[in-house]
Write a structure and sequence with these properties.
2 copies of one chain form a homodimer. With about 230 residues, the first copy, chain A, is of the alpha+beta class. Helix content of chain A is about 15%, strand content about 30%. In chain A, the strands form 4 sheets. In chain A, strands 3, 6, 9, 10, 14, 15 and 16 form a 7-stranded mixed sheet that branches. Chains A and B meet through β10 of A and β10 of B. The first copy, chain A, binds a DNA duplex (24 and 24 nucleotides) through β4 and α3.
DNA sequence: GACCTTCTCACCTACGTGTTAAGC
DNA sequence: TCGCTTAACACGTAGGTGAGAAGG
């Protein structure tokens, strides 16, 4: 774990709440050359996997961890001449405006409407709900979340291709007195949603580090096109 | 769902609590000829899978579902001449005596000590803890529990080979006021723990109904030794 | 034509089966 | 020997990869 983002709240129990991104080095390798994530009709997992360690919760209180994807801008992006460039406006579907960061909603209110919908909205970590002790005893992995560009029947996060997103993790207390505790994101996890990889260096990194792509490791190694990743 | 077992308690909320065994017909096919479950060092899943539907919970209250295996007797069993027969006493490893059935623990008390240990003790359903609504919206499947004969590092249920067990499911309320609500078992899920199948009819049933054993379906079909299962 | 999307595919990971032979 | 246990194995299920061709 390497990057920490903490917020304080008026609540006495979770004052020292800290959320740390795991595998930050790996994320940075992708981020340096602009990360891409595949979206498919049936849903595609993320790689790298979003993984955070949490501390500062009340071990015996009950929490849920939420994940959503916030567009970093209203733009579409194009990959031309080996570089990502902003194209025109956000394709008309101005669905993203309610989720910006300058709204004063980060401290506990604000999410009241728009929450129950669940389509393209919020991914609830499958361990939810659970005790603070559970979330803190080991890093929390979002390896099962799937990204899609179609509205399927639930569970998958709907993104628009060629738009840029930043994953946001929320911790909410459930039970007797539900409340939003924190809402963190990590810049190195930003990515552009694509239906096919644009930058072949991204492809090479995915193949190199994702065990499920090991079938293509040989192919890329035999192609001695030079640079070591 | 076919077999229901309900218990009432002094608590006003869960008076109508009912737990129903799913796939009872399949369980009965095995039970008729004395069911066996493999135990291995690394842990073996159960087949059939323990699956129950639950109703009568408070949808917004928080519960955990627990599974443990109660020896039906202190005996070891032997498979001789195509039949199971009781052998001598419980092999000297008198580790099981605290869990017998004549103890008056069936209605809600009695489990207070011995619970936290977790080794060979209690399997907590991975969805735990969760809302009553979650447990009731679909049948609860214990397909991930693993049976072992060695004390591994956690998660697996330690059983003694050639002993007979009955799975017990407990529903506990967690959170503000923890309490054991009910404690049910189903006779058709009784089995003898074995390191290798003794009754070849059990083997045939496992192969016939467990998708993971499909590799052996052909073998058994080509052997036209007669009876249809 | 250029760009983006969709589908099928071979090839992996990961792991659940009973079988079989060896071990004790 | 006999009874029980263990480990290696072949063969499944289940599903996650990018490649490549086809579609729009």
């Amino acid at each position: 774990g390497e990057l920490a983002a903490g917020r304080e709240k008026g609540d006495p129990t979770e004052k020292r709440l800290v959320v740390t991104l795991e595998d930050a080095e790996l994320w940075r390798k992708f981020q340096e050359i602009t990360n891409e994530m595949i979206v498919t009709k049936s849903g595609r997992r993320m790689f790298p996997v979003l993984k955070v360690s949490v501390s500062g919760l009340d071990p015996s209180a009950m929490y849920s961890l939420l994940l959503d994807f916030v567009p970093t801008d209203g733009r579409r992006w194009k990959y031309v001449n080996g570089e990502w460039a902003a194209a025109g406006r956000g394709e008309g579907r101005c669905q993203e405006n309610g989720r910006g960061q300058g709204e004063g909603r980060g401290q506990g209110g604000g999410r009241d409407h728009e929450e129950g919908r669940g389509q393209g909205g919020v991914y609830i970590h499958p361990d939810s709900p659970n005790f603070g002790a559970h979330w803190m005893k080991a890093a929390v992995t979002f390896n099962k979340v799937k990204l899609t560009n179609k509205m399927n029947s639930g569970g998958q996060m709907v993104l628009s291709s060629l738009q840029r997103y930043e994953p946001h993790i929320s911790i909410v207390r459930v039970g007797s007195r539900p409340s939003l505790l924190t809402n963190v994101s990590f810049r190195e996890t930003t990515f552009i949603a694509v239906t096919a990889y644009q930058n072949e260096e991204i492809t090479a990194l995915k193949i190199k580090y994702n065990p499920f792509a090991k079938a293509f490791l040989d192919t890329k190694d035999r192609n001695p096109s030079g640079r070591s990743l």
